[in-house]
Write the structure tokens for this entry.
Amino acid sequence: MIKRIVVYEILLNCLVPLIIVAQTVSPPGLGGKRPSAPMNCLDRIFRLWQWEKYWRGTFPGEERYKSGERSRVVVFSYRSICGLCSARLGSCQMYSVDRFGVPVLVNQESIASDADERTAAKNLVERGIYPGQLWQGPTVPRASRTVPPDQAKVPAEGIKGIVGLPTSKEATGNTSLGLRWEDFSAETLDVALPPMALPAAIAGKLRPSKLEAFKSELKHIFSQRPRISQCAPREVIIPYFSLEDPSVEVLVRDGKCTETAVTMVRDATTGKWETGGWGDRPAYLNKYRPRILSAEMDRLKIN
């Protein structure tokens, strides 16, 4: 039986220039000024899309995305909120960046190919963010952790812990964040859309600095799960990943008896790892097994 959660995923290792910008400050490493908050935001979003393309098979706006083509993009940010609007991509998206640096999609809308991106961005911001659009980690009752974020019942008061902004009304199920366009930094950029290449950690075979701590938590988690004695030993296959990725997909094998793909996510408060979803059906394994094995970094034996 498949148990899955929608993990709104993003990204990010260190900032490396992924985009070619015609009118803005230079990205780091090119001798220019330090990148602006909107530029950092755009870099994060592109990295998230690369991560989603590899692990989920698609990303927002993929049907209109063509690597190398130039596109006008309005990028906006304020504190832990950032987003982009592009008529070329037909989309406006707003994210809340969590304490791990991972952008979580909190609002989006489609826009026409001739739309004014700055007006569309302003409208999206002023629509605000509602509790049901946020994935709150431990503030969500455990029974709700396995349903998509738009179906989870999230306490309105929990919003402050994610985005650090006050709510516009008293905490109720319909409370939205009181966002003002005037508070946001915004830039209109002309960019060449970067290729949806492999995530940086996989492409560069980068081992995370706290790998041993991660493996220790995996060992604790998976040594507790029941198994058939004659199927020992248990083995967990770990792909290359960044500690700033939205989740880590691992493959758990009990000898030659069973095989399960498991999504590991971090508790938004403690930072500890836990299972966010798993599946052993053929369709699920056929999707994740080749991705995990292709990006394999390490194997953990659990006797």
